[in-house]
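ok trying again, last paste got cut off:
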Amino acid sequence: MDAFICTTCGTQYAPSAVPPPRCLICEDERQYVPPTGQGWTTLTRLRKTHMATFRDDGGLIGIGMAPNFGIAQRALLVRSAHGNVLWDCISLIDDTMVALINGLGGLKAIAISHPHYYTTMVEWSRAFNDIPVYLNTADAEWIMRADTCLRLWEGDTREILPGMTLIRTGGHFEGGTVMHWAQGAGGKGAILSGDLLQVVADRKSLAFMRSYPNFIPLGEKAVRAVAATVAPFRYDAIYGAFWDRVITQNGKQAMEDSVARHIRWLNSEVL
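nice, full thing came through this time. structure:
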């Protein structure tokens, strides 16, 4: 049986004889079902219609797909002396990608910011000898393909390798997670943020939304809570979810300024 993949969000479901009747993630208010209706593909088809893209993105190796697929995020390969981590995930995985990543030291773990990027996480784990995939337990309801590789973690932080710490920020999703990389930005520290701290087009500031496609902003209390979770950590760079969405320096100041701006406009009386 095939494990069908939603063409709108890229999430892979458990194997079934026929496609699921609907994508629960896309029916949530944070995502959407397109006007053309729910669509499905499989990993076998994706390998024929899409190809992987690898390139430098702010000093890390970004891994994406061409043409764009699903939400069009790119994953990031974080290399360290203690092992490599894949931050976030994309739907495509094939033998060539595995060989290239193995040539760069392989993978020791996968960590994913939130359910929109769960994609084919089980396939990725199996391709690298069933490595652990770290997800926050608060988002367990959004796991559409259960597997023993999934490591549900609780609490506010979880160090998965020396110098790589997962931080539960909440906000966009209850279990929304960023990763602090102590050795990033030349030792000044970096935050890999996915959509939780969304680096926007000016590459100088951040957005904080419950839904990006449906334009639902986070309220003041939620944004202040997100900011408080990362405040204790030292960092200079922030890596967003998409190609070239990287704040390469002064990230901590950008965070503070963006929080203040968001709250100012939420409370503004300007018509």
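cool. The chain has one domain: 5-266. The first strand starts at residue 5 and ends at 6.
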